[in-house]
Design goal:
Elements: E1 2-6, H1 10-22, E2 26-30, H2 33-42, E3 47-51, E4 53-54, E5 57-58, H3 59-68, E6 75-79, H4 84-92, E7 97-100, H5 105-119, E8 127-129, E9 132-135, E10 140-143, E11 146-148, H6 152-163, E12 168-170, H7 171-178, H8 189-204, E13 209-213, E14 217-221
Parallel strand pairs: 1-2, 1-3, 3-6, 6-7
Antiparallel strand pairs: 4-5, 8-9, 9-10, 10-11, 12-14, 13-14
Helix pairs in contact: 6-8
Length: 229
């Protein structure tokens, strides 16, 4: 999940970025509203984490502007001020959730996933395709009831392919949502991830298969009859 974190407190952003990265989020960190606006012009985000007090303005005013421009990205606001009037103003300004600082990363991640579930109207978060079950909240995969172990990046690839199962997922879409601006990514990083994920699926006896659509991207298919590799 591509995430934009707007906060100028280095200690907090460092801890949050590491924790979210370990949980499957690709995080871009900016410290001003000007940088946040530039990031929105360059990338597509699934969720926004926003501090209210920033060096160049009010985060809530910026969020209101985003909403007025039609941006519906889920937003979690963070602040060390906790007055009832402020909380009401935050929600009225377009926020989906509000956390009081100091932020505990486990709670933040749980809140983020809850917001994402609501935004996609997910009643059952478990994704089922063929004999493969994927839990995006717990980041767990099973094939015919048996756990499948894969690296964090491979699980992120699988999640995006499952969300569009049976449809082509452009290479650019995967790269845009898997990697943040600060990630050091080799030219063939996506191909390596796809190759390793295919290996996990084949060895586990998973019925879904990843097909390369040359020059475009990838598609996750589930043939009616599959011979395990």
């Amino acid at each position: 999940m591509r995430t934009l974190l707007v906060d100028h407190h280095a200690d907090l952003t460092r801890a949050v970025r590491v924790a979210l990265g370990d949980s499957g989020f690709a995080v871009d960190v900016v410290g001003t509203l000007e940088q946040a606006s530039s990031a929105f012009c360059c990338a597509s985000y699934e969720i926004l984490l926003l501090e209210l007090v920033l060096p160049d303005g009010d985060g809530l005013d910026w969020l209101r502007q985003l909403r007025s421009e039609g941006h519906s990205v889920p937003a979690v606001v963070m602040s060390n001020i906790d007055h009832l009037e402020q909380r009401i103003a935050v929600f009225n300004g377009g926020a989906d959730d509000f956390l009081v600082k100091p932020v505990f990363t486990d709670e933040l991640i749980a809140r983020m996933r809850a917001v994402l579930r609501r935004s996609t109207q997910m009643t059952d978060p478990i994704i089922v395709f063929g004999n493969l079950h994927f839990d995006p909240i717990g980041r767990q995969v099973s094939v015919a009831g048996h756990p499948l172990m894969a690296a964090r990046r491979e699980l992120c690839i699988l999640e995006h392919l499952l969300n569009r199962a049976g449809r082509i997922v452009p290479r650019a879409h995967l790269e845009d949502h898997l990697y943040s601006f600060n990630d050091e990514v080799s030219a063939n990083a996506l191909e390596v991830g796809i190759y390793r994920l295919r290996g996990h699926l084949n060895r586990s006896g998973a019925t879904p298969r990843i097909k390369t659509v040359r020059g475009i991207g990838y598609i996750l298919e589930c043939p009616t009859s599959v011979t395990s590799a």
